[in-house]
Amino acid sequence: MVVESIIRVKESLKTPWQFLIATMIITFVSFLISFIIFKHDVGLYSVFLITIGLIPITFRLNKYAFKKSSRERPKSIISVFSYYKEIILAYASIFIGITTVLSILYMILPEEISIKTFQTQINEIKSIRGYFSFGGAFQTIFFNNIGVLMVCFAFSLIYGAGAVFILTWNASILSTAIGMTAKALGGMSALPLAVLVYFPHGSLEILAYFLGAIAGGIASNCIVKNVIDAKIFQAIAFLLLVGIFLLFLGALIETVSIVLG
Hints:
Number of helices: 12
Helix content: over 70%
Number of strands: 0
Strand content: under 5%
Number of domains: 1
Shape: globular
Radius of gyration: 18 Å
């Protein structure tokens, strides 16, 4: 595939901006194709096409994470970030690339077109806001996000690079929320402020999902290669435990923001 020949994962891990640029191109092209061909649900089909475009990259990232874990493992839960830093930065670059392009597209499209284009995402945002309005905010947010973490792990485990679909879907939801907020606050100039609205809790949640995707990818490679190694299983457990802790912090911050808001 063209993506595989352009992005050499092992070399690009030293320069995460390559993942960012490649993802932005894939996202824009996927949106453009969806806008031209799949006019009845551009937002959803964009997610599918972006996912297809990113699978070669994320598949190789998972293989690299497995090889890294088979050689050595994080010495503690805290060391997970330093040990998998380059892989986490690659996932972050991918997520930021999707979110940036879709947020800008939402902003520059006329209001009626952007609403129609991202209708699936808008409906999901309304559903989430209504769901969280029924009390028990912290518990609801925390367990909902743990569910997403487990889905990331499961998709990556079963499909190898499957978690990229969940990450892309979440990026599209976040992009739409940022775009809606920025438009409400005054337009393109309010985009940085709109990002800040979601950054405190959103960054922790997304980071947790990255860890779930990495853990699932490592587990998937273990099954494919028929590897049983206590070091690797411990690395997977560390990744998931750190992810759950991040979701706990994110739920606390989001609950406080809801109460104060």
